[in-house]
Amino acid sequence: MGFKEGFFWGGATAANQYEGGYLSGGKGLAIQDVITGGDGRNNIPRRMALKLADGSTKFIDRRGTEVPDGAVPYVDENTYYPSHVATDFYHHYKEDIALFAEMGFKSFRLSINWTRIFPNGDEKEPNEKGLQFYDDIFDEMLKYGIEPQVTIVHFDLPLHLATEYDGWYNRKTIDFYMNYVETIFNRYKNKVKYWLTFNEINFCKDYTNLGITEALSRPDKVAQAVHHLLVAAAKTVIRGHEINPDFMIGMMINYSEIYPEDCNPENMWKRITEKRLRTFYTDVQNKGFYPEWKLIEYKNAGIELKMEEGDLETLKAGTVDYIGFSYYSTSVATVNVDAKRTASNLESAVKNPYLKANDWGWQIDPVGLRIVLNELWDRYHKPLWIVENGLGAIDNVEEDGSIHDPYRIDYMKQHIIEMKKAVDEDGVDLMGYMPWGCIDVVSAGTGEMRKRYGFIYVDMDDDGNGDLHRARKDSFYWYQKVCQSNGEEL
Ligand code: BGP
User: Fold this and answer.
1) Which of 162, 268, 398, 408 is the most exposed place for a label (fewest CB within 10 A)?
2) What is one GO cellular-component annotation here (predicted)?
């Protein structure tokens, strides 16, 4: 049997971690453009520069804790921001796409920078230069027969929508977003068929994604903003199918497995409650309604969701065509320790003695991938697409310029073996496999460059030094064989 014909072997990236050119071609500022790098291994978080009402400046945790009244995030000229140049796809896209084609990619996942199309987010008319930029990219990909998969929002929000409107808490943001969506759907309807709405929607809880400064202290505002995201995602599906009935519009979630620490029923129950941080989203976006437990949870917390007339119908009518998910690691649930889970950290609070972890504490678990593939397939019976997977690691460049990364090859090989079992033995409908950061990009969680995932090395360090030249790692040649043999040669 093996992987189906036309299986999408490819790779994945995101605009703010890869593109650079943060003000080029009329692009406006996104929240990501005001966030500094951090240091994942020493637990130094990424931060935002704030201008205070009295004219002074202050840096705060990007999750938006304790933002003083009147504070505005801004770009401090003396500080290095990883998104500004990133790994410069903006100027290297032809070279990079040629390298993807050389590897045999059938598909490539990228996100559109919302602020390239609508620099402030609330304009009526789009920025033509921004639209042209993605036209050029899609044309370049299609020239090689590489199918684009576009994430509409990948950890991205125009800064202006956060500072002026309170981001996704404000219902108006749905309209601004839909204007953006309609613009790109109409413009690219003959070039792009596969879409994803919000990247890792289950991690869209902090300032970066929601644009709500008090994200941590106001669960009611977060719940309302999340409702707006879900309505917006459903509207995207409905509108997309009107614009082009052939569109395949998926959701995107981080879907890891969580094991109970042991057979204590309380730990199993803990596992179920932690799992709900994910199944809430997959349920709403696939079944089309809020699960009962969520409504009870909100009620008990005194949260009253403001739903407009028609919202429930929209959720029902806007269920997705496929499920895109990222999978990196698994964690352990126990009543003894509170789960630690943020957008930047998939580290399990409890170590699993059966698994090894990477340098950032992410536990490596190929069998877990087969488990979640089965779980999602059994629960929803929708096509699945692994749109992120991979190993963040520090690579060494040898004197002759070569980069030997057997650890990366081994990680992916083990995961593909389990994918294959899910397809061959369990009958899961799997559309494709897109290793994350197929070319080195900035880390989303830490802003570091040294945490690399790529088959292609980019010369750039954590402080923004490097000439950005590209180099093929050993894994490049390995993945080439995988793509060319449709997963037969591992
Ligand atoms: C996911 C994100 C990606 C990506 C990846 C790896 O959460 O969707 O944007 O970066 O994780 O995470 P990190 O970059 O923190 O290693």
Assistant:
1) 398
2) cytosol
